[in-house]
Amino acid sequence: GARGAAGAAMGLPAAVRDRVAAVHRGSALPERLRLYDGWAARYEQVPGTPRGGERRGAAAVPADRRVPAGCGGSGLHRRGFRCLHGVDGSAGMLEQARSTGLYQELRLCVLGTEPLPAPAEHYDAVTVVGALGEGQVPSTVLPELLRVTKPGGFLCLTTRSNPSNLRYKAELEAALGQLERSGAWQKLLAQEVEYWERATTEEESTQGTGYISGVVYIYQKCPVPHLEEG
User: Fold this and answer.
1) Which end of the chain is more exposed for a tag (fewer CB within 10 A), N or C?
2) Among 12-21, 86-95, 150-159, whose mean pLDDT is lowest?
3) Methyltransferase type domain: which residues (predicted)?
């Protein structure tokens, strides 16, 4: 039954549950980065996290184009993307990303606090998967993501729909909608994913499944309008 599924899905090691809870709650930025540095070597070993956002983002653009990813680009690479740039606020996470050999460029950058280390209109696609959430990357990062995306380029963004992230999700969707109404981009997809990642507590679990739900958004940056001659 549902309770059994919840018990199995939340049968993560206590240390993993505690670490996930620590990086998601509103601790100060230096403390969160220190936690990620310590987690880096074992981060990819945490089971049961669907990578729906990477799959959707990878399908959107040709494989020879530039795609910056928040240092989770293995799914993109498997689907033929070979020009990947990564940014992360954790030096430890960057070292782990460098060891994969997947990235042409890796830079230290705290999203939402520092400007992206790239010129304007540089990338064909930008992905931020699993980082837009309460206590993580603020929704105020959106204009900076748009800045580095080429006109006509794509942005794949994800957030969680669990109870503790609903306030953030509402703020994010308000910001997404404001940019759409201003003509900065157009929405191509907003897809709910029921089994997004494992829940760390029963309270966060979606209807007792043991997982939390999430949503994948894909936007296309509006092209620069052509000026009429004459």
Assistant:
1) C
2) 12-21
3) 70-156
